Amino acid sequence: APAEEDVLDHLETYLDELGESGLLTRETAITYLEDRGIKPADARDIIEQLLLKGYLYEVGDEIRIPPRS
């Protein structure tokens, strides 16, 4: 879905900005997306959908993005 692709693109950009030392959690992702005009409830729902579909995965509290082809 276009909204899911937008969120995934935003999160990839955020991780690039953070660099190697960056840690992405659900809360930091929601805050970052809110700063980009996405409502927190929508961000939570989209992140959950991306996790269920395998576009994101969690290790402990950290959210990671597998490489896209």
Give a quick precis of the structure.
The chain is mainly alpha-helical. About 60% of the residues lie in helices and about 10% in strands. The model has no long low-confidence stretch (mean pLDDT about 90).
Q: Average pLDDT value? A: 92
H and E order? HHHEE
Strand content: 5-15%
Tell me about the largest β-sheet. Answer: 2 strands, antiparallel
Strand order of the largest sheet: 1-2
Give the low-pLDDT segments.
none
Backbone CA Rg = 11 Å
The percent range for helix content is: 55-70%
According to DSSP, the number of beta strands is 2
Q: What is the molecular shape?
A: globular
Secondary-structure-based class equals mainly alpha
Continuous helix count = 3
Distance between the termini: 17 Å
Explain this structure.
- The structure is a single chain.
- The chain is mainly alpha-helical and 69 residues long.
- The chain is 59% helix and 9% strand.
- The protein contains 3 helices and 2 strands, in the order H-H-H-E-E.
- The chain has helices at residues 2-18, 26-35, 40-53, and strands spanning 57-59, 62-64.
- It has a two-stranded antiparallel ribbon.
- Helix 1 (2-18) packs across helix 3 and helix 2 crosses helix 3 (40-53).
- The longest helix is centred in the first third of the chain and has 17 residues, at 2-18.
- The chain is globular, with a radius of gyration of 11 Å.
- The two termini are 17 Å apart.
Descriptive terms for the model:
single chain, 2 strands
